[in-house]
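haha ok so turns out i had the wrong file open the whole time. this is the CORRECT one, sorry everyone. sequence first:
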Amino acid sequence: MPQYFISRSLILLMGLAILAFGVVLSIRSQLGTSPVSSTPFAYSYIVPLSVGTLTVIFHIFMIFLQFMVLKNQFHWTRCLQILAGMTMGIFIDVILMLTVNWQAQHYFTQFLFCLLSCIFTAVGVCLILKANLVNLAIEGFYQAISVRFKISFSRCKTFGDIILVLFACLSALIFTQHIIGVREGTIITALLVGTMIKWVMPYFSFLDRLQKSA
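then structure:
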């Protein structure tokens, strides 16, 4: 097996683990999860499944949507996103179990958890991008929409994240009569993570040599 593939796989696993920790921190903050995690988290209160399991199901559904959008342009390699989704789901459930006693009692602590969540999420995304092996399914779906309908990726992501948050809110209201997992932290995450990725990415430029060796 090529050495660069092993190195990239390790970077991808590290990125998924750090990203999962960021998701868990947003949950522990009690100020709202990220837009992408809002639907799996909301449905964990609706159906008897864990956040990690619902994250895997969410990834599979996003791959199905990619197939529906791209049709003949859909390439089988996109199915590898399932592996990333499964790994992400396992990491989320394990970290949730390990942090079960983490309680943010005061708003300052909750806000600190939220900010740390943004940082870990940004770092995780940077590592996944640097690994350059497979995208997360939601990003793959936005990319598919961008390719199919000639819309910029950033616009697809912006509107897609808004739809995910609205869907999570509506689902929670219908089934529990309460909004779950969507608060000011959701907005903070949506606004900060993209900027943080731009700040953090240059610090991982030393990983670019892995792409050149591919």
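The chain has a mean pLDDT of 87.
again sry for the mixup
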